[in-house]
């Protein structure tokens, strides 16, 4: 998965990649308990032909007239806000370092707007963590009981797990595209706070595991 924003991947939920690293290209913010994410939209997709994409407003439309990913997420968020549809479900991955991704779980896309970053207009998306969602009712009217549990795995736990699993997928030993995986899924009550409930999986095994659960 390379693109940062993927609207309704395979006609299912959307997937976004976030980063809070100092050199991250976008300003993504997440609350301490991991329940509220303010996600920045993305720059013009033809960045290769553009001298400085950071000087241009983040586009809502492609030159073809079709919506960009910004535009698709924006439309979905506004439709929800106007009360005409359930919020979109978005799975959020966070970049921990190069090739290391953490699954931050499922969020509802509930709002969006454009604001100035001082130079140009950027999109902002507000997402709220979905609690107690089993994958069966992911597209039903999921209960939004906000819990105080954190789906975000703290850095010290990640560090311990990375060390224990020697930076490899526990299934196949792969060393790239690794994800921190809740052994008992967060949605089923699994904790983020114990190294015993967290393991390293490569992208392939992470996906095949979630397929099995679903
Ligand atoms: Zn693997």
Q: Please tally the β strands and state the result.
A: 9
Number of domains as seen in the coordinates: 2
Largest sheet: 9 strands, mixed
The level 1 CATH classification of the largest domain is Mainly Beta
Q: Report how far the terminal alpha carbons are from each other.
A: 20 Å
Outline, from the CA principal axes?
A: globular
Give the low-confidence spans.
132-148
Detailed description of the structure:
The chain has 214 residues and is of the alpha+beta class. The chain has 3 helices and 9 strands. Strand 1 (5-6) and strand 2 (14-19) form a beta hairpin. Bound molecules: zinc ion (ZN). Residues 169, 171-172, 174, 201-202, 204-205 line the site of zinc ion (ZN).
Helix-strand blueprint:
Elements: E1 5-6, E2 14-19, E3 29-30, E4 36-40, H1 69-81, E5 88-97, E6 100-116, E7 121-129, H2 155-164, E8 178-182, E9 198-202, H3 203-213
Parallel strand pairs: 2-5, 6-8
Antiparallel strand pairs: 1-2, 3-4, 4-7, 5-6, 6-7, 8-9
What does this entry show, briefly?
Helix content is 16%, strand content 29%. It is of the alpha+beta class.
